[in-house]
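Input.
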Amino acid sequence: MNRVFHRRSLLRTGLALGASLALPAARACEYFSINLRVTHPWTRASCADARYAIVCMKFDAVAQADRLIGVQTPVAEGAEMGGTQAGKAVDFLIPAGQETVLAEEGTHLRLVGLRFPLEVARSYPLQLIFERGGALDATLNVDYLRFG
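Output.
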């Protein structure tokens, strides 16, 4: 009986090790400027004729109030604010000592003039430009499709 139990344990351990080597490494999704932390910039997959993509992310650990004033990425011609603070320019206040979120349901970042469709499980370079914190290189993850 012990021999059977021992074989099963070895088999499970071997399978777990093999699976961990076969899976891709987890993507980092926290980015730090001198002033704040940006967590998980993401968007949904887009169709071939999409003109824009909504980008969401969270800002926290904000030492001093800052302002997101620009975005650069090779996937789009430009960016603007959408939702409750809609406008043609990127201008988003990030207060000190608070968690602030760019979300689909409220204020969000909109990438305009998409150059190609954004595909599920892909990631693309994204540079966020802050008034105080300067430029921050991050990765934009495409998480899932829009349903409904």
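Residues 2-22 form the longest helix (21 residues).
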